[in-house]
Amino acid sequence: MDRDVLDRDLLDAHERYDQEALVRLYTIAADERELAQDIDAACFYLTHAFVFALEAGAPEADNLNQRLAERGRAHRLEF
Predict the structure, then answer these.
(1) DSSP state string for 26-46
(2) Given this model, what pLDDT does residue 1 score?
(3) What residue segments make up the domains of the chain, in order of their start?
C-alpha cells in the first residue's frame, strides 16, 4: 500500500475512531515494515494494532500478541 495513502487512511480511522480499520491498517503498516526488515517500526505498529484489537475485543488480538511475544516485545497472553 502506498505510504501516503496508508498514513491518510490511518488519520481518517483515528478521526472516526474506527477500531476495526485501525487494527487492519496498523497491521498492514507492521507487515510492510517487517518486509523491509525494520523490526522496531514493525513492532511499533503491531503494538498499536494490538491495543486497538484489545479495546475492540477483536479476535486479531491473539495473533498480534503472539507476533509481539515472538519478537520479545510482549508477554504471551491467554485469550
Answers:
(1) HHHHHHHHHHTT-HHHHHHHH
(2) 86
(3) 3-70
CA distance 5 to 71: 28
State pLDDT tens for residues 5-14: 999 999 999 9
pTM: 0.94
CA distances, 49 to each of 9, 53, 75 (Å): 14, 6, 16
Give the amino acid at 29: A
34: cell is 517487517
Cβ contact 65:30 at 8 Å: no
pLDDT tens per residue across span 18-61: 999 999 999 999 999 999 999 999 999 999 999 999 999 999 99
